[in-house]
Design a protein that fits this description.
Layout: E1 14-18, E2 25-26, E3 29-30, H1 34-38, H2 40-48, E4 52-57, H3 73-80, E5 88-90, H4 97-104, E6 110-116, H5 121-124, H6 128-135, E7 140-143, H7 154-162, E8 164-167, H8 169-183, E9 189-193, H9 198-208, E10 214-217, H10 219-228, H11 243-251, E11 257-258, E12 263-266, E13 273-277, H12 279-290, E14 294-298, H13 311-321, E15 326-329, H14 332-340, E16 349-350, H15 355-361, H16 367-370
Parallel strand pairs: 1-4, 1-7, 4-6, 5-6, 7-8, 9-10, 9-14, 10-11, 14-15, 15-16
Antiparallel strand pairs: 2-3, 12-13
Helix pairs in contact: 6-7, 9-15, 10-11, 12-13
Length: about 375
């Protein structure tokens, strides 16, 4: 049983390469290409070894129908800048006679970039027949879609069960780096959790609690937790439907969850909202960071995309850069922040997954990884 794509002869074979290119795009311009660059070692290997690379990715939330706003064309065109001498064909579709004809005529060492998998409702419904139809396009399946591996979607969980399947170099790198946090982190182990995806983050925070010594809460997560404990947060962003769950989590956390002691406000009277953690909280969080041997950061401390509300995020990132403990960063907004500020290489490891990284560290089974452990070696071409 091969465990790595580098052990496999891919020459002249059509390889379905599932990636997570869910990058931020504005007006047709890719604002961050971190996830794209992370896949280059696998792509380089496949192309140099004369594979016919068929790229599959999701992008945004088009709700199971075609929406030009969520076309992968800008991302595919950005990818071309890394392989300027490689033939790259681009389509907004996945099926059809024209696509099949193009796939049959592909040259070894070339790329065909298929359309957004989420244009099809069958993808998020984890539909087996949808995956079976796609499997007929290739002989080998390779996945570097670590960032989507915690979701049960057809092209990440069904497709690898149908085909001869392998993890890509990025997937292997992610698992190797996060295994330490999952199985044997240095102590004290501190997680810094912020961001605005409250329902998802609250569930993952609950999973993390048994694994860590402390959780420092910032961003909208801090708003929710503070309100659950009776604090007036004005018009700050939160989700009242999660208040009871948040309160119960704090009460059962045995003091592990550390809330901000002050916030930066915008507005006056009852019309205020929290936009960042305050200076006293920054100093408090710095003490926990300085005393930790392992630190995991997921989520900004405030509305960091606005420079005037980024002081807390900036201060925490500086503290992590200067920390003696090992630092791991995950999450789209967090990675975008450190990338835009040219400090991405200052951390020990930066993951391409947000929710997937947290779920993996927490010990959860990730269906997109589990599906790669066994496969039917009968090709489907």
């Amino acid at each position: 049983m091969h465990l790595s794509i580098s052990d496999v002869d891919v020459a002249l074979k059509p390889v379905i390469y599932r990636v997570d290119y869910n990058e931020p795009v504005k007006d047709g311009v890719v604002l961050s290409d971190f996830r794209i660059r992370a896949t280059l070692p696998t792509l380089d290997y496949l192309l140099k070894n004369k594979a016919k690379v068929i790229i599959l990715s999701h992008f945004g939330r088009p709700m199971g129908r075609f929406d030009p706003k969520y076309s992968l064309r800008p991302i595919a065109q950005h990818l071309m800048s890394f392989f300027d001498k490689t033939q790259i064909q681009i389509s907004d579709g996945i099926f059809g006679d024209q696509i099949l004809q193009s796939l049959r005529s592909m040259k070894p060492g070339s790329i065909f970039f298929l359309g957004n998998t989420r244009f099809f409702p069958q993808e998020e419904n984890n539909d087996f027949e949808f995956a079976m139809s796609i499997s007929k396009m290739g002989e080998i399946y390779v996945s570097d879609a670590f960032g989507a591996s915690h979701r049960k979607h057809a092209t990440t969980t069904q497709l690898p069960k149908i085909m001869e399947s392998y993890p890509g170099m990025l997937m292997q790198k992610e698992v190797a780096a996060l295994d330490r946090l999952r199985n044997n982190p240095s102590r004290p182990f501190t997680a810094i959790i912020g961001g605005a995806k409250l329902k998802t983050k609250l569930s993952l925070l609950k999973s993390l609690l048994p694994k860590v010594d402390y959780i420092l809460a910032g961003g909208a997560m801090a708003n929710l937790l503070a309100k659950s404990m009776g604090r007036n947060i004005g018009e700050s962003f939160t989700d009242d439907s999660l208040l009871e769950i948040a309160k119960e989590m704090i009460e059962k956390s045995e003091g592990k969850i550390i809330l901000p002691v002050d916030f930066m406000n915008e507005g006056r009277g009852e019309k205020f909202r929290y936009v960042d953690i305050g200076n006293k909280t920054v100093e408090l969080f710095k003490q926990y960071i300085a005393g930790s041997k392992e630190i995991f950061w997921n989520g900004t401390m405030g509305i960091a995309e606005e420079a005037r509300f980024a002081n807390g995020t900036r201060a925490i990132s500086d503290a992590l850069i200067n920390a003696k403990g090992a630092t791991t960063v995950a999450g789209g907004d967090t990675v975008s922040y450190i990338e835009q500020n040219n400090i991405i290489d200052k951390f020990d490891f930066v993951s391409t997954g947000g929710g997937a990284a947290v779920a993996y560290i927490a010990g959860e089974k990730l269906p997109g990884i589990d599906a790669l452990k066994t496969w039917d070696t009968t090709t489907t071409a």
